[in-house]
Amino acid sequence: MAALRDLAEFYDPDLSLPIGGVIYKVKSPGVTEADRLRLLVLDDTLSAAKEYDEIVKILGPAREEMARNGIPDTMAMHAGRTALLHFGASPSLGRANWQFAQLADFVDIQAVLDSSTADDEAKDARAE
User: Fold this and answer.
1) Residues of the chain where predicted confidence (pLDDT) is lower than 50
2) Which pTM value belongs to this model?
3) Sequence-distant (≥ 6) Cβ neighbours of residue 26 within 8 angstroms
């Protein structure tokens, strides 16, 4: 088997978030911090104040750059939540948050779920 290439030669562990034509780079946490974040994203008692503190911490210099560039707080918070999910859960969950978090503002998620459940129940009734 061929030797593996050094991962540092081709893998960027950081998160790049495009906002308003600027790429904001969020540094990847170390192993110990990532372990802490994994527990954090599972904590259903996380308060808004604690979430804010965690967002400020994870964005670090990227948040300062966002502030200098006049990025709205709501966008910075969205970027921070995405980073928390990316590093604390998975890149896929972070990407889903980045792309779809606002969906609930436009779609009644409960109605969609209820409709889906009703469809499933109707199919089950027909199958009996």
Assistant:
1) none
2) 0.79
3) 14, 15, 16, 17, 58, 59, 60, 62, 79, 83, 86
